[in-house]
Amino acid sequence: MEKKNSVGIIETKYFTFAQAPNQLVLESGEKLGPITLAYETYGALNTERSNAVLLLHALSGDAHVAGIHKGEQGSGWWDSMVGPGKAFDTEKYFVICSNILGGCQGSTGPSSTNPKTSKPYALDFPLVSIGDMVECQRHLIDYLGIKKLLAVVGGSMGGMQALAWLVRYPARIKSAIPIATAVRHSPQQIAFDEVGRQAIMADPAWHEGNYYTGPGPAKGLAVARMIGHITYMSDTSMAEKFGRQKRNKVRPFKFTADFEVEGYLQYRGDNFVKRFDANSYLYITKAMDNFDASDGKPLHEVLKGTEAKVLVVAFKSDWLYPAYQSKEIAKACKLAGLQATYCEINSTYGHDAFLLEAKGETHLIKHFLKKVFYEYEVTGTYEI
C-alpha cells in the first residue's frame, strides 16, 4: 500500500559508461571500465533543466531513496523527505539518486564481474575514492542532460560527496547541503572503521576477498555492522529504546543475548548481511577514511570564488560526526565568502538523526531550496 504523498512505484534504471578504451582514470591512477551506475529519479525535469537535485547516500544506502519497488515491501531510505509536498517536493524538483561506485546495489563494485576474467573482481577491484564516486555521478548528470544542479544533498558519507561536488565542480551546482558530516575523518572515526574492517577480514570465510562461490564472511560483516550501529545511536536513544530490558525468550546458553539491546544488534547485523557485500564495506569505509575535501589545505582557501549557497546541518547528540565538524565546514564557507547557514537540530537520535528527524530537516531544507530556486520561480529565468 502506498503511503500518503508517496512517489509511488519506482523502477531502478542503469547507466553504463567508460567502455574500453575510454576507461575512467581513478584518483589512484588506475583505470576502470565499463562502469554501471544504478539510479532512480523522482518528479520531472523542467524545460529549463533547472530543478534537478542530486541526493547522495551514506555507507549502506543505495539508489532507492523513495517510493516502493513493485512486488517488494518497504519504502526507500529517505521516503519521509522525498515526494509531493515533502522537503524534496517532487511536484517542484527533479530528484536523482544513484548507487555509488564501489557499491553492491546495482553499481559496479568488488562483487561485479571483471571483464578480463569473467569472475567477480573481489580484491582485484581498484581502490576508489569519494572523488571517484562524484566523478561517476558527474557522468550520470551529463548523460541526463543537466548542466547545473540546483542542489547536492547528503548525510554522513553523502555529505562528504556533497563537499566533493562543492570543491570539484562548484560551477555545476547552485547549492550544497552537507548533513552530519566532516571535511575529513578524525582518528576516532578511522578507528571505528578499521575495527569493522578487521572483523570482516578475521572471518575465515572471507578467503582474502574470494568468497563469491561460498557462503562469505557473514559473521564478520554482521559484527562490523553491529559496531557501526552502536555509533549511529546515542546513549539517550539506546536508553529510551532498550533500557536494561531483558528478552522474554532466551536460549539456554550462558552467553546468549539476554538484553534487548543485544538482540537488536544481532538482528541488525544479520539483516545487513542479506543485502550488503563485505568487500564493498571494506572499499567504501576506506574511501571515507582517505577523504579530505580540501586535500590537506585550509578549506576556506579551496572554496574562495565559489558562488554556491550552503546549508550545513548537524545534530546535538551525534557523537560519530559531532557538531564541531559541521561548524568547521560552515566557518570555512563563510571565510571563503559563501552564503552559508549552519543549523544544529536538538535531537536525541545520535547520528541516525539525519534519517529520522524529517520534520526538523524538512523545515530547514524547504526554506533553503525555495530561496535558492527563487530566481527561477519569480522571473522564469535561470542562469546556467
Largest sheet composition = 8 strands, mixed
* Number of strand elements: 14
Distance between the termini: 40 Å
* Secondary-structure arrangement, i.e. CATH architecture of the largest domain: 3-Layer(aba) Sandwich
User: Can you tell me the CATH topology of the largest domain?
Assistant: Rossmann fold
The arrangement of helices and strands along the chain is EEEEEEEEEEHEHEHHHHHHEHEHHH
- Roughly how much helix do the residues carry, as a percent range? 25-40%
Structural class of the helix and strand makeup? alpha/beta
Q: How many domains in all? A: 2
CATH class of the largest domain: Alpha Beta
Question: What does the model show?
Answer:
The chain has helices spanning 130-143, 157-168, 187-202, 218-232, 235-241, 260-275, 278-290, 299-303, 323-335, 353-356, 358-372, 374-379, and strands at 13-17, 24-25, 31-32, 35-42, 52-56, 82-83, 88-89, 94-98, 113-114, 119-120, 151-155, 175-179, 309-315, 340-345. With 384 residues, the protein is an alpha/beta fold. It has two domains: 13-184 and 292-379, Rossmann fold; 189-287, Rna Polymerase Sigma Factor, Chain: A. The strands form four sheets. An eight-stranded mixed beta sheet has the order 1-4-8-5-11-12-13-14, sandwiched between helices. Strands 2-3 form a two-stranded antiparallel ribbon. Helix 3 runs antiparallel to helix 4 (218-232). 48% of the residues are buried. The mean pLDDT is 95.
